[in-house]
Amino acid sequence: MSSVLARVLFYPTLAYNVVMEKITSRHWYNRVDPTVILGALPFRSMTEELVQNEKVRGVITMNEEYETKYFCNSAEDWQAVGVDQIRLSTVDLTGIPSLEHVHKGVDFALKHREQGTSVYIHCKAGRSRSATIAAAYLIRLHCWSPEEACKMLASVRPHVLIRSAQLEILQEYFKQAVQGLKGSTVPPEDGSSALRNAPAPSASADPGREEGRGEGVKMAASLVRFVRNGFGRSLNVARQSAAIVQTRTTTTETRPTVRPKDPVTHTQLSEFGEYIAEILPKYVQQVQVTCFNELELMIHPEGIIPVLTFLKDHTNAQFHNMTDLTAVDVPTRQYRFEIVYNLLSLRYNSRIRVKTYTDELSPLDSSVPVHQAADWYEREIWDMFGVFFANHPDLRRILTDYGFEGHPFRKDFPLSGYVEVRYDDEVKRVVAEPVELAQEFRKFDLNSPWEAFPAYREPKDAPKLESGDKPAK
């Protein structure tokens, strides 16, 4: 019954997935980590993109034969372009991957992780069957719980839907793959095949399969009601299920204004930073996660445009918003100015900080072609620090007055010897006059460690009178 229903609904639901990918923010596939890509049906037209751009050398197909017969490559077609394919056929809509399939899929992905290549795990929509294999891969690799693995997948691909029966399979796999290895001193996270020592459950000794069949009958009945009653009720159930998957495992927070520690997020940011460094090794010089969950990149000055473009356009980044751009002056360094780009991804609710460096004479490429919001930020940095941005559309002072000399935010900028410009209400015009500093608030017992021109503050020594001399009149 469930297999027949899956065949009947295959083409309508496939068309629905294509439409949703076009009109919403969904992506046809998303990269989970440097090895695994989770996605929908890999159409023949996507072969070149997956093989050349994403470096895919392995494909895990969760579909039955009829689902991929007309739209996707066969095993021979994949082999012709240097890609290995394994098929772990599972019924659509109501099917649950068996533990044997889960073991095979994870071992296949770990083998390609050892080789440094990518694996494309897919079903029809990349939501349920394939997401189960991807979650099992994360459980095996990081020793995460099923809930942590599902939460990570939901952060990368928000519309994944792991059903309760599939979650039970993941929990059983967790017991075999993680809890069964706790006796070892070092968990095998290097992609080894230690799982093969665990006995794979046979078809006759798998009690979850019988439960899965009963669950499949229930799902088939619900799908009949879905066809009769329309899409609304089923969509509400799907939203509730997705909300359960995305619920945080720990909600204790004693200080709401302080970002709590989140090991899962910390691991995700670290791996994403390593991924950026692997993609752009020419420009990325340092990667670190600071302040709990803040990713920070130090890049070469020549990499401003390539790195910002990559972070803005990459499907797993989408840092479209520049929230701030500023500079820091540290005169003791060889490159005294540090330029800081703060970026925000609304798609993934994530932030990243990109830093670069320069000196007084070396210009930087303007980031206005990538982020229009950088226009006034770069004008402010030019005005306050004197950092020149090449190819800026309108680089001129933004805060100081016409004819102003110097850059006030430099550490060696003198505090005296300049005039201030203000509006005088008595004369009804703008006046320029020497800076007036209240003497009772000034301290002369300390010298600024940044003072580069002490002659501006230390007056010349007055000539001393010898005994018997009279002062000149």
Automatic annotation (TrEMBL):
Instruction: Report residue spans for region: Disordered.
Output: 184-214
One of the GO BP terms on file: phospholipid biosynthetic process
The alphabetical list of record keywords is: Hydrolase, Lipid biosynthesis, Lipid metabolism, Membrane, NAD, Phospholipid biosynthesis, Phospholipid metabolism, Protein phosphatase, Translocase, Transport, Ubiquinone
Q: Which organism is it from?
A: Sinocyclocheilus rhinocerous
Q: Which PROSITE patterns match?
A: COMPLEX1_30K, TYR_PHOSPHATASE_1, TYR_PHOSPHATASE_2, TYR_PHOSPHATASE_DUAL
Q: What is this protein called?
A: NADH dehydrogenase [ubiquinone] iron-sulfur protein 3, mitochondrial
This protein's GO CC annotations: membrane; mitochondrion
State the CDD domains in the record. Answer: PTPMT1
Q: Which reaction does it catalyse?
A: 1,2-di-(9Z-octadecenoyl)-sn-glycero-3-phospho-(1'-sn-glycerol-3'-phosphate) + H2O = 1,2-di-(9Z-octadecenoyl)-sn-glycero-3-phospho-(1'-sn-glycerol) + phosphate; O-phospho-L-threonyl-[protein] + H2O = L-threonyl-[protein] + phosphate; a 1-acyl-2-hexanoyl-sn-glycero-3-phospho-(1D-myo-inositol-5-phosphate) + H2O = a 1-acyl-2-hexanoyl-sn-glycero-3-phospho-(1D-myo-inositol) + phosphate; a ubiquinone + NADH + 5 H(+)(in) = a ubiquinol + NAD(+) + 4 H(+)(out)
> If you read the UniProt record, what top EC class would you report for this enzyme, in one word?
hydrolase
| Source organism phylogeny | Eukaryota, Metazoa, Chordata, Craniata, Vertebrata
Q: What EC designation does it have?
A: 3.1.3.27
Q: Where is the Tyrosine specific protein phosphatases domain?
A: 100-168
Pathway linked to the protein: Phospholipid metabolism; phosphatidylglycerol biosynthesis; phosphatidylglycerol from CDP-diacylglycerol: step 2/2; Lipid metabolism
